[in-house]
Specification:
binds cytidine-5'-monophosphate; about 260 residues; alpha/beta; eight-stranded parallel beta barrel; TIM Barrel
Length: about 260
Amino acid sequence: MAEDKNLLLSSFSWEERIIIALDVSTRTQALKLIDLLPQSRIFKVGLRLFVAEGPALVQEIISRGKEVFLDLKLHDIPNTVAQAVGEAAKLGVRMITIHTSGGKEMMKKAVEVLNSLPRAGAKARPLLLGVTVLTSQSSEDLEEIGLPTDPASQVLRLAQLAVDCGLDGLVCSPQEVEAVKRITRQKMVLITPGIRPSWSTQDDQKRIMTPQEALQKGADFLVIGRPIIAAPQPDKAFWLIVEEIKSLSDGKKKN
Ligand code: C5P
């Protein structure tokens, strides 16, 4: 990866390792959540919100001192993806996702574009993250589209391609983190959605884990949406999760 991973992680507190998925459709709802969660550092803007509110909202979130994970999961011909990645970088986002199943040439071109960007002062270059197999996809779903039925083997295959192409990190299910880490070693940032605290509903996620389990397995950042943003009191849900995570790190210190 372009940055030193340990250096990068050392600049994040435990609560900042929770990335809030702003899966809402309006600027008002998004900004309300950001105001409710002042301790959160990175907010994920996905397809829904980006389609609804566009780059202006991304810039507004950044102007409020927050970082944006632009999760558009780009997958197109190499040139188109590389150009879109370049535009996202110009917006000043911290993380961008592309689908690793788009293939080597697509990933390499995206890396090239980021490497060729002029360094704007101390501003960090966005981290280019590869999406492997969506956490909502089960073996049956993969079989239906003609892929190997074991999500784990497909994830590892795609993770190796991402390593070969020089991506900065990967988005994968917490259940695959351990195996992925053996391939990426300490070189890549691992980000896991599909997080469900024991007290929350599973929704459409299939390969899930609790926040503590995911961190224990080696996740560096957790993407959490509905368990926080759809909770009656998002701030309470956030702090409940932070407390659970902190009890884990306290336990580690004692051992
Ligand atoms: O609400 P929930 O916690 O399930 O939200 C998870 C978020 O992570 C969603 O924004 C979803 O798009 C995203 N995501 C995912 N699986 C991936 C990559 C991203 O669920 N492999």
